[in-house]
Design goal:
7 helices, mainly alpha
């Protein structure tokens, strides 16, 4: 799996959904993102979708631009997960009536 694939996976975007968003054949988008096909107009559309230049998404130096985006997704997901855990375990400050009765 390359960095571009990892970025889309981290963002929860399937190639089918990306293809629909870009109004392109999802299979062609998948092949281009995977790197088995270099279709210029699909590369341009994917890069524009990400707000990057084609060279920043595809090619030998793409990792320099994609890795920070992947790290941002990881940090965002970490923050979301942490917020959910806090809401689940720390927001209820009251002791339940049942615990009060048992603990006396």
């Amino acid at each position: 799996m390359n960095d571009l694939q990892r970025l889309f996976k981290a963002r929860g975007i399937s190639m089918r959904a990306l293809g629909e968003t870009l109004s392109l054949n999802w299979h062609a988008v998948q092949k281009t993102v995977k790197g088995t096909r270099a279709t210029a107009h699909i590369q341009a559309a994917v890069a524009a979708y990400l707000g990057l230049a084609v060279e920043q998404c595809f090619g030998p130096r793409a990792a320099r631009h994609l890795r920070p985006l992947i790290e941002c997704e990881i940090n965002r997901k970490r923050g979301d997960y942490e917020s959910k855990l806090k809401a689940r375990f720390l927001n209820n400050h009251t002791v339940s009536a049942r615990r009060k009765a048992v603990n006396g």
